[in-house]
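Lecture 7 notes: from sequence to structure.

We start with a single chain of 314 residues. Read the sequence below before looking at the structure.
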Amino acid sequence: MPGVCAVGMAAVVLAGCAAGAAPSATTSSTTSTSTTLIASAVSIVTAPVKLARTPDGLVGYREVGAGPPLVLIMGYSGSMDQWEPRFVDALGRAHRVVIFDNAGIGRTSALSAPLTITAMADQTAAFIETLHLGRPDVLGWSMGGLIAQALAVLHPSLVRRLVLCATLPGNGKATLPSAAAAGALSDPAKGNATTLLGLLFPANQSAGEAEYVKQMLEFPHFYLAPAAVSKAQLGALGSWLSGKEIAGRSVDEIASPTLVADGLEDDLVPTANDRELARIIKHSSIVLYPDAGHAFLFQDERAFLQRVQGFLGD
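Now the structure, written as tokens:
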């Protein structure tokens, strides 16, 4: 269903404030196939963009921190520059945190059409294996949570623990957003910055909205997904939500301990979806944050980080 997983919609607001081009290869790319842990950067915003040469093409990524590996998977239309730096840096105090661009974004190679969640999960698996991350923990936000689910189903040896943030099941039983929310996202020209950011944050959380935008613009070369990639991702989302992908219909096979989380006021991913995932994933727990929306993980950052760190450390 077009317009459901909305991480990337904040790009509409940010696009007027930042450059839209991905970092150039001459200033930001290296190839990594080594098991050696590179000394961490002080912050993810100063970490260089590197390239991993995988069997499924190039993957652009950054990393920060040291410790057990933790892979973060971005959602619809978002680049890796849409992770809040403060959030990533906090996770980097106890983990080697790796963020990357999905297919066709930034320096990451595009995949064959039609794009699917399964194909993006397979590319993610190839990326994890190329970096020799072993069995990392995986956190996916919005559409990134779909990719994380498919990864855990199709490549279970590559996922130790799973954190699913504001995401949806692929068994054909997803609860869709309101028509107004879906319409504002799928056709942003009809909306405005306030409306679109309101899909990430409740109306009374303007301070959280402002801080999110401020954090995004700390990245020196902020960039967005190309329009054609966003369109292809919408098709992949529709296929997943309608139960057409085997991985989506097999989420009940996930064996990795799983934390499902969201904001109770998420207009894009109604919490019925979180409850459905917690119901069908055997080894799962669920936490829902009051007065929080799709970007709950940044709005309730301190509480959520504590919950994630406790879950990953168990």
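The CA atoms of residues 45 and 218 lie 7 Å apart. Keep this in mind for problem set 3.
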